[in-house]
Each structure stands twice: as C-alpha cells, then as structure tokens.
From TrEMBL, chain A:
This is Sarcosine oxidase subunit delta. It holds the Pfam family SoxD. InterPro entries: SoxD, SoxD_sf. GO terms for biological process: tetrahydrofolate metabolic process. Gene3D superfamilies: Folate-binding superfamily. One of its GO terms (molecular function) is sarcosine oxidase activity. It comes from Thalassobaculum fulvum. Signal peptide: none annotated. NCBIfam families: soxD (TIGR01374).
From TrEMBL, chain B:
Its cofactor is FAD; FMN. Keywords: Cytoplasm, FAD, Flavoprotein, FMN, Nucleotide-binding, Oxidoreductase. This is Sarcosine oxidase subunit beta. SUPFAM superfamilies: FAD-linked reductases, C-terminal domain (SSF54373), FAD/NAD(P)-binding domain (SSF51905).
C-alpha cells in the first residue's frame, strides 16, 4: 500500500484515491491559438520517467480534492505531496531523478 | 546443430542426457552489425528470426540487458487470441494467430500451443449486443467466433456462478475456439534458438546506455559491453520504451504501468480453456503443470517496479471468486509483476520513427504475448523494407498526430483504462 499525505485528511491509503496521471501537462492556454502539435503534446506525449514523477491523485473516498504528488515510479516512495496549486519541495528535480 | 526429434530424444536418453548441446551460442559482440535489435524479449527475438528467415538479413544482433526469458515474455498469462473488433487490430492479431498455429513445426521447438478456446463472459443484455457485434466483425474478417447463450456457457463450464443470487449473472459469452495458451518460456527459447541457427548473435547482459547520432541517423549503440556500430536499429523493449526512446531524443505516447499475475497451487484438471470475466477484469486458465494462471487489472499508477500492491491483489481475487466461487479455497503459490508499455489508445505501435534508421515496436498494453510471432513478422518487414507491412500500417506512430486512433474500448487517451 502507498501512503499519500493528503493536505486536508493526512496520510491515507492509496486505494482511497483515483490516479489521475501526469501533473506536468498543461492545457494550452488559448485553445484557438494552439497548433495541432500543441494538442498532440498535451493529449498524448508523456515523459514517463523511471524515478521522480509529478502526478495527480483524486481523493474520491475522502475529501474529494485533487492532490499533487511527487512519487518515485521505481520504488513507489512518495517524496512530497500538496495541493495542485502548491510548489512541492523537490519539484524542480529533473524528471526521473 | 542437432534437430529436436523423437530419435534425438531416444539417443540422448540412452546417453544419460549428457550430450545435449546448448540451444544458442553466447558470442562476444562484433564491432558492427547491419541490424541491431534492442530488447531480447519475445518480440525482439521473433523480429531477428524473421529478419533472417524472410528477408535474408543475418548480420543481426539482439541486445538483452538481462537474460533471455527474464522480462515480460516470461511474466504474462500466456493467452493467445485474435478476438478484436477493429480492422487494424483484427487483421494483425489474426495474422499472428495463424503463425502460432504452425510455430512449433516452424521452430522445431514445442511451444505447447494449445487451442483450447477463449471465452469472454457477458453479464448484461447490452454486453451480449456488444459481443454479437464484435463476433460479427471477427467473422467478416474470417476469424472464428461463436456467440453462446447462458446454457451454452453452462455446458462448457458448469462450475461458474449460475445461482439466483450471483452478483453478476451470466447471460452468455463470446467464444473464440482457435484461441488458447502457449508455454511462454518455450516461445522465447524457440525463437532464440531459431534466430541463432540462422546466424543472429544473441548478446545477453548487454544494456543499452545511449545512442550515437549523426544528423537524423543512428550510427552506433552504446552498451555496457562497449559501443556497437549499426546500419539500422529496431527497438522492442516493452516497459522501458520511454527510457530507451529518450536516449534517442524521442518522446512517445506511452506510460509504464505494473501488471500483476498469479499462479495457484497445482490441481487436477479443472479448467480446460481460457475464461474471462465480463463484469470486471479477470482471466484464468490452467497450465499443463496444474496451477491456475490468472490475472486482472493493472495497478493503475505509473510504475517501473515489477511488483504490485495488495489492493489490486484483493481486487483480482474478488473478481475471480465472483465468477467462479470454487476458487475460494485455493492458495496462491506465486505472484509477480511486469511493466506494461500502455499506449494512449490501447493499441500497439510498430512503426518507423522521426529518426531515419530507428524503428519502434511498443505500446503492447496487456496484450503483447499473443502478438509475438506476428509482431516479429511485420517488424522485420518494416526494418528490412523501410516501410510498414500492410498489417502494421494502421499501427503507425503517426496516428496520434493525424487522429487515426485504434481505441478498441472507446476509452480515450487515458492509458490506465486500456
């Protein structure tokens, strides 16, 4: 079991959450101006690092907030967690380190 | 090299089995090869085999970071089928299934391919309609399928839950009689031996650490056993696809996820086919050694760990017991995890890439094992001819740019759902 420190509820088992994927992807700010390649990068391409991965988890069986988590995909260790608007410690780690 | 036959078996039995020779060589890597295949799993070995057999290209090395059979080719639930709805997938997987049907003879190696039938259970009227549609699509493409009603399923498998209080009552099912199982290790060993006999070098304990580039071409591959020059490079590294592609400067529509599988204690013959649950995700068959081989969903988060978590174990077992209550008293003997290269539309990618002489074989999601011979066949064609075979034209990397996706489940760009 992975323990995720929810900013509202404290440490909770990961099966209370629904995984919502890569948190580094940012929707094009001006959809009308975005090129097909911008959409391709946003919708389909992923860094998919082995190591530190910034991701969203939705606390569906708790406070229902989205939580931003920095987690190591090789060990499953949670390195940091916070609100989606937070800048997490270690967030500037190069992906995969 | 000696053929495997009844005669050679008798001869070696009389000699106390001391004179079998190794199935493939253990060569030192040469300075350069015409084609380098990165990844010595089922797909990489099959690709090397068909490069030599179909295209006469024998100056080939397969680079494997571990040992042959240690990756996903030995970590699956051995199911082989071609029961797909969409044309692009259906044609490709049916080609693969036809290759399976002659594979033991082709390789002179018993891959124990057993066409025991794959049954998908339906648990609602809507699901029966969807199965009728998929079964019809299969038949239109010349693939066998039979839609069974509840009694038809019951005649095949009387021990499923047909009780009045079953949480997910069985309405019927879609059967592909030509589907079945194979022995996964034997597939790896058979292709390795076959490729080796045709002159391919299989180099184990040789991890790729980088690529040497000259413009839009790769001129060499850096490995833990030195730099190896190359004319062309084929990549078939499953869960590590994104990492190896990144070394070549490519970003791909792939996420890596862990999928667990399980084997129970051995039993006398119980399940003589493959049964899949339709109300959740669960599939089960029985190996020739007697253990029930089963699996379910991935763990639903990005992972490279080759081991999963307990909530998924509980979820898989709950699915199994809902479908087949007599599983409840069994003990699980072993479990393991493999890293799936989950693509963004749930279908594989066998394709040219933006780099002129780099070819990509990836995105297998849960389903790479059954594709092994077909994948090798069309990937070898793509590398040898520098253009896709007609069966992998729809499986191009470019489909994510043009929008020609192959989304069997209609689930959208969410890899964990495929």
């Amino acid at each position: 079991m992975i323990r995720i420190p929810c900013p509202y509820c404290g440490p909770r088992d990961h099966d209370e959450f629904s995984y919502a994927g890569d948190a580094t992807k940012v929707r094009p700010a001006d959809p009308a101006a975005a090129t097909p390649e911008d959409w391709h990068r946003y919708v389909y391409l992923r860094d998919n690092p082995r190591g530190a991965h910034l991701e969203y988890w939705h606390h569906v069986q708790g406070c229902r907030a989205y939580v931003k988590v920095l987690r190591d995909t090789a060990t499953h260790e949670v390195l940091a967690a916070g609100l989606p608007s937070d800048d997490l410690p270690f967030e500037d780690l190069e992906a995969g380190r | 090299m000696a053929e495997y036959s009844v005669l050679s078996l008798v001869r070696n039995a009389l000699g106390g089995h001391r004179r079998w020779i190794r199935a493939w060589r253990d060569p030192e890597p040469k300075k350069r090869y015409d084609v380098l295949i990165v990844g010595g799993g089922g797909h990489g070995l099959a690709t090397a085999y068909y490069l030599a057999r179909n295209h006469g290209i024998t100056d080939v090395a397969v680079l494997e970071k571990g040992w042959i059979g240690g990756g996903n080719v030995g970590r699956n639930t051995t199911i082989v089928r071609s029961n797909y709805l969409l044309d692009g997938n259906n044609h490709f997987y049916e080609h693969s299934l036809k290759l399976w049907e002659g594979l033991s003879r082709e390789l002179n190696y018993n891959v124990m391919f057993s066409q025991r039938g794959v049954l998908n259970l339906a648990h609602s009227d809507g699901q029966m309609d969807a199965y009728a549609r998929r079964g019809n699509a299969m038949r239109l493409n010349g693939v066998d399928s039979e839609l069974l009603d509840r009694n038809g399923v019951r005649r095949l498998y009387p021990y499923l839950d047909y009780s009045a209080n079953a949480r997910f009552p069985i309405y019927g099912g879609l059967l592909q009689p030509r589907g079945g199982t194979a022995r996964h290790d034997a597939v790896a060993w058979g292709f390795a031996r076959g490729a080796d006999r045709l002159g391919v070098d299989i180099i184990q304990n040789c991890e790729v650490t980088g690529f040497e580039r000259s413009g839009d071409r790769i001129t060499g591959v850096q490995t833990t056993r030195g730099t190896i020059g190359c004319g062309r490079v084929g990549m078939a590294v499953a869960g590590n696809t994104s990492r190896v592609a990144q070394m070549a400067g490519l970003e791909l529509p792939i996420e890596s996820h862990v999928l667990q599988a399980f084997v129970t204690e051995p039993l006398k013959p119980l399940i003589d086919g493959v049964i899949t649950f339709g109300a959740g995700h669960f599939y089960i068959s029985q190996s020739d050694k007697g253990g029930l081989v089963l699996g379910g969903d991935i763990d639903f988060y990005n992972s490279y760990a080759q081991r999963g978590n307990l909530p998924t174990v509980e979820h898989v077992m709950a699915n199994g017991c809902a479908m087949m209550p007599n599983l409840r008293r069994l003990r699980i003997l072993r479990s393991w995890g493999g890293i799936m290269d989950m693509s963004m539309d749930g279908s594989p990618i066998i394709s040219k890439t933006p780099i002129d002489n780099l070819y990509l074989n990836a995105g297998w999601c849960y389903g790479g094992f059954k594709a092994t011979p077909g994948s090798g066949w069309v990937f070898a064609h793509t590398i040898a001819e520098d253009r896709p075979h007609r069966f992998n034209e729809p499986l191009s990397l470019g489909r994510f740019t043009t929008g020609h996706l192959l989304d069997e489940g209609g689930k959208g760009p969410t890899p964990k759902l495929h």
